[in-house]
Amino acid sequence: MSMRIVPAAEYSSTFKATNTSAPSAPGVHDTLRHGVGSVDTSSSSAPAAPVSRHPLEARLKAWESTQEALRMESLRRAFGMAEPIRRGMELKIARDGHWRPSALGPPGAPGVHEDVLRGREATLDWDDVFTGEDQRPAVSVHDEMERKLKI
Questions:
Q1: Around Cβ 117, how many Cβ atoms within 10 Å?
Q2: For the residues of 90-109, what is the DSSP string, one character each?
Q3: Given CB 3.0 to 4.6 Å as the disulfide criterion, which of 18, 66, 128, 133 pairs with 7?
Q4: CA distance 131 to 110
Q5: CA–CA separation, 66 vs 72, rounded Å?
Q6: 5 near 70, Cβ under 8 Å?
Q7: Cα dist. 19→24, 30, 71, 109 in Å?
Q8: DSSP characters for 111-149?
């Protein structure tokens, strides 16, 4: 394993445009040239990776995974193989938790336990504030417990 701090430069020196965007506005579908129905509307769970011409964007996408790999490798070298395995198991248990109140965030979003295990409890990102759950009515913890326990 390597002790890489910065992600590797894995970008090509050439770029081939495969999208149907307008030349003056990259990323915006050009309806006049390519028609209305040619937009890819595949509903996959993960959003499609944006096509980028800049090599820095590819490095920024790999930044967190590189930092996590460095952290696990340094733990393995300091404490042995058991420590990264234990942390991975604890992270999996925290992610696969059965139930969490909606006051702690929408389902599927990383919870407090996962943030603590990943060392991100002191960081605040855009996704932490704007969860997309603004229009949903607030449900109290008591109502959730009554629904969960069928009272």
A1: 19
A2: HHHHHHT-S---GGG--TTS
A3: 66
A4: 11
A5: 10
A6: yes
A7: 13, 10, 37, 30
A8: -HHHHHHHT-TT---HHHH--S-SSSPP--HHHHHHHHH
The residue type of 110 is P
Give the Cα separation of 149 and 100 in Å (integer). 13
Q: Establish how many alpha carbons lie within 13 A of residue 51's alpha carbon, considering only the half-sphere containing its beta carbon.
A: 11
The CA-atom distances, in angstroms, between 18 and each of 10, 27, 46, 50 are 19, 11, 19, 11
Count CB neighbours of 72 within 10 A: 16
- Select from 94, 143, 142, 145 the least CA-distant residue to 118: 94
How far apart are alpha carbons 128 and 105 in whole angstroms?
9
| AA letter at 32 | L
Q: Which amino acid is at 141?
A: V
